[in-house]
Fold:
Amino acid sequence: MILAPRKREQILPLPVVLISTVSGGGVRNVAPWSNITPILRPLEEIVVASWIKRDTLDNIRATGEFVVSVPAAGMAEAVMACAKNYPPEEDEFVQAGLSPRPSRKLKAPGVEGCLAWAECVLVEEISRKNYSLVIGRVIHLEADDRFFNQAGEMDYETAKPLSVVLGEKGMWFTRPVFAGRYAEYAEMFIGGKDGAASSGGRD
Ligand SMILES: Cc1cc2nc3c(=O)[nH]c(=O)nc-3n(C[C@H](O)[C@H](O)[C@H](O)COP(=O)(O)O)c2cc1C
Structure:
């Protein structure tokens, strides 16, 4: 099957996060985002793809900051509540019934009840005609220790992080389950040694 251009995004399961910001005038905003990826390891920078007409993008431009909160699967209703295109003067925490979680380093709050919170500052915006790629530096990151062990690993069976598979007219909210195989990073390296780990470059 050859997928038409407007169906191509349906081949990839995507993460779901909530991005919270404040406007230049101090109005709080929160919206779901799936086009987001860490830029390699360790998670120092993150890239977010945004359509031009987004209050989130306007706020990031105005304040230079945003918070990425990672919701659990049980939060799908809240995710859809803040997906609505409220006007910029509406406080979307209030509209969506979400509780703000004060950030350590930023004015913008995270979202209470999530699994992890990454406080980010704008590093660069790569502008295209209809969309922008926003590169942020993660300046502070916290995770709920009920769902992460001492090594910082997520217990995803308990945490149930939210993801999504896109369809023709809607989207299925999903969550990751174990596929039956655990692999150590060392397996990727002939001789079992990650030479890049000490030299700075990573996989
Ligand atoms: C699961 C999900 C993922 C989304 N991912 C994106 C995305 O990656 N980029 C984007 O521009 N909009 C995305 N949206 C749409 C925005 O969340 C939506 O337009 C929202 O109203 C934007 O709010 P804002 O104008 O307050 O920023 C997504 C919506 C949902 C429900």
